[in-house]
Design goal:
Layout lengths: L1 E4 L5 H9 L9 H14 L1 H12 L12 H10 L2 H19 L6 E6 L2 E9 L2 E5 L8 H14 L3 E6 L9 H10 L3 E4 L2 H10 L9 E3 L4 H10 L4 E2 L7 E6 L5 H12 L7 E6 L4 H13 L5 H10 L1 E5 L3 H11 L3 E5 L3 H5 L7 E4 L5 H6 L25 E9 L1 H5 L2 H11 L2 H8 L5
Helix pairs in contact: 2-3, 2-8, 2-9, 3-8, 4-7, 5-6, 5-7, 6-7, 8-9, 10-11, 17-18
Amino acid sequence: MKILDYRKSDFAAGLEVIYNRPSYPATIEDAVRNIVNNVRSEGDKALQRYALEFDKAELTPAEFKVSAAEIAAAEKSLDKSAKAAIKTALKNVQSFARLRIPKAWKKLVRKGVTLGEQFVPMERVGVYIPGGTAPLVSTVIHTAGIAKAAGVKEIVAVTPPGKDGKVHPAVLYAMKAAGVTEIYRLGGVYGIAAMAYGTETVPKVEKIVGPGNAYVTAAKKLVYGAVAIDMVAGPSEIMVIADETADPDKIAADMLSQAEHGSGLEQALTVTTDETMPEKILTALSERKSTLPRMATVDKVLEQGSWIIVVKDMAQASEIAGKYAPEHLEICCKDARKVAKTIKAAGALFIGHWAPEPIGDFCAGPSHVLPTAGSAKFFSGLTVEGFFRRMSTVEYTEEAIQKEIAVAEKFAEMEGLAAHGRSASSRRSK
């Protein structure tokens, strides 16, 4: 854990280190590209090889797809409280999504000229559900559940298998509840490549969404163009803005919630106006982390990716938050709503002492698929609009086009595009 204090000379340099974090280590991109290219050229053969190499699962192409019998068995094995939690979260997430479904519109903007937009759901999208260190049941809801609310007909889920080749039953049940139509036990980079380019067994998709580790993030970046993606987002991160009214024990709990994700590349920060807060948080972190099962990962994050930043006032705290542009920003202070309005960039805001980040991860409503590594400055979190194709609509009457033919002709002349001009002039009334 590092502490930065605005009164010390290393403050500005320390902030620059924090701001300039990469989405993933640049050194991994060559290895990722090699895997992607092999899947693209070899198809199922490469998937078999990588499933064994990376997930220790020996699979035939016929076993890539999870069967209906496996899904039914998973549903039967899951306890009632788990099913209820999944249903509640799905209801909340889809209810929020439906509030944002785009509607077609038209407007007469000039005499005889009607402009507008129409929206059609994508037909086939892929969702990546991380596995490995933790079966992210909630990610199914926050990706596939939203796609279903958008009206996507074919929702393809890819998730890493265990060594036994199986997928966690809670993940399978969530996929069924969320409306997933195909499930493949394929993980990481090779799973992303399979969805992007298609293989003999896995038909390609139109868009890939969902979080993942640094390798998954690099793979999504590399396949962009062959398919659409939601964003380039790496390991999880949290920043907490706190004043003297904040509870250091709750702050410690929230910082640790991100540190336990598993890659060791996560980040957890607190920005505080209270000069006594760092010591209190450090004590709370020490007490709380000793009770967690993922100690090695947590210790790595606390050592390499965690800071407590002491600032002079809330204005400076907001400025730092906007420049860091965290995936998750908790605002735990007086006048939290007022402070929230000053934030220029963040994936999601958690306002007040009673809105912990994990409630957003699981069941609040907005998707937990959010931009990281400062990309909240130019990416936004996944929303239902991301599953639609938007088409602008243009209608002219014969009278209306007469008024703008000369404009089109002049642009055609300036750009050296004679056929463009003649297309317009061919509609001039005789």
